[in-house]
Amino acid sequence: MSEPSSAQHENTRTIIRWLAAFLSPYKKRAFAAIFFLCVGSLSWLALGQAVKLVVDEGFLSRNAAELNKMVMVILAITVVSGIATFCRFYLMTWLGERVSADIRKAVYHHLLTLSPAFFAKERTGEVISRFTADTTLLQSVVGSSLSMALRSTVSVLGGLVMMGITSITLTGLVLLAVPVVLVPIGVLGRKVRRLARISQDKVADLGAHVDESLHEIRTVQAYNHEQSDIRHFDGRVESVMQAARLRIRYRAALMASVVLLSIVAIVLVTWLGALNVLEGSLTAGQLSAFMFYALMVAGGVATISEVIGEIQRASGATERLIELSRMPQDIKEPQNPVDFPAHALGDITFDNISFTYPGDENNAVFESLSFSVKAGKRVALVGPSGAGKSTVFGLLQRFFDVDSGSILLDGIAINDLSLDALRKQFALVPQESVIFATSVLENVRYGDPDASEQAVIEACVAARAHDFISELPQGYATELGERGVRLSGGQKQRISIARAILANRPVLLLDEATSALDAVSEHKVKAALDTLMENKTSLVIAHRLATVVNADRILVMDNGKIVATGTHNELMASSPLYREFAALQLVSEVDEPSSRLVAK
């Protein structure tokens, strides 16, 4: 039992230190909130003494003047308490919102530094759940529940002190019941925290399923998979409900046991106090004040027991956020990055590269891969699926680090360049264009966030996209919807090419952008690509004949190796694998002569 308890304490300390780091910039507001919290609690404690004086000096002595004065004192204390409550509530709620916002920013900033390997393992929907639901829960706790817990703690401690001043004997009897009350808080509280973590994990899993099914809604509906997904979703919802039911049961037991034990203790002690009043050893005013403080203590303990479940639940959420914010970056920045010009020449060298994807160490992608690309040249990569073509792109941009060997850009190892400087040298046009749920202007400007509107228009003209953009309802201000649902495949590709033209980077990585287009769209996209590739070093994953015949050199890849290199004509004459690939994927008429293919 000692080891889990120790781990629990360590987790609690970690959570407190982590949250304190976010609260630190707002120390003045935090101290002000605590000050007003104490003022409000002390006001209520002072009210107990006023009640005592009203009973003993005003009511029992039949002194109307003293009674009137005490009533005015009570009203004054109430006004002070009201002002303090306003200030405390405003400041604590503001802190909750501010800390939650800062945590969201910190976690998001960190997420953008993680490599694709992390997102290949983690489901995006689960990450989003941690990012949104967990921070919202934390906001509620910092802004509300924590405030209630602190206020109640001050009230309980202050109430116990005032009870002691009123009657040390009765207070001693109350304190005897404290260990009994703390038992359910300790035992059930840890259980609530563990179940809260399980519940949050199941909610995150649910979010991941929703994200996945809605993202692929066309596939879901095309295969009439709605009812199957509904059953799957309903099962996950019930799993969430089952975890929540158990957590709620323990939390309800925690609250009920604390309130029951506290009230029973106070009733018994008040009964003894009433006997003391009858004996004359205690005044009616003193007993009234003692009961007032006892009820305040009981109410405070009840509030603490109520919010402790919420705090334990937030602890589980915070642990998940800490895990996300401390997820190690597997792509490290160099300690002393080499200075590099804004625009590289574009010489690329793969020198004896060996590489396996993380978590798949038994399946090497490359073993001793070597090739070079001269600045300004167009090089096509061809080969069967799984040959390693896309992996070349990922390694060039350091989305993954090689196991051995080195990749050079203009003679400098890319590991010696800052990630920012390195990735500024590449413009990527993927096979499936990425369109964001914003305007045409902002989608193109993604290649250069500071570009003027005129520069965006010029890039779109060069990408053969201006005409169709002008026909959209709001032109360049038209919102394109999630993942560009309002555009055709060819239009998406031309937006993507315009983005790369605007970025104006020296090395182009093109995952054949015309492979899935109709003839008209292909012609327009090809014209845009020709404009894009002028005076650039271009690496192209090729699926079409027009790409390879215009390449300065073709690299034929198979099982992570380069098995042949040359021009289209040279490879048609010398490489059986290339001829087979050309027959299956690059030409429509297998028996067509090579010279005629080139003419095309």
What does this structure look like?
Helices cover 66% and strands 9% of the residues. By secondary structure, the chain is an alpha/beta fold. It folds into two domains: 304 residues, Up-down Bundle (ABC transporter transmembrane region fold); 144 residues, 3-Layer(aba) Sandwich (Rossmann fold). Helix 19 crosses helix 20. The radius of gyration is 35 Å and the shape is elongated. The N terminus and C terminus are likely disordered.
Task: Write a concise keyword list for the protein shown above.
600 residues, alpha/beta, ABC transporter transmembrane region fold, Rossmann fold, 2 domains, six-stranded mixed β-sheet, disordered N terminus, disordered C terminus
Q: What value does the average pLDDT take?
A: 77
Cross-sheet strand order for the largest sheet:
6-7-8-3-9-10
The radius of gyration is 35 Å
What is the number of helices? Answer: 21
Number of domains: 2
Low-confidence segments: 1-10, 587-600
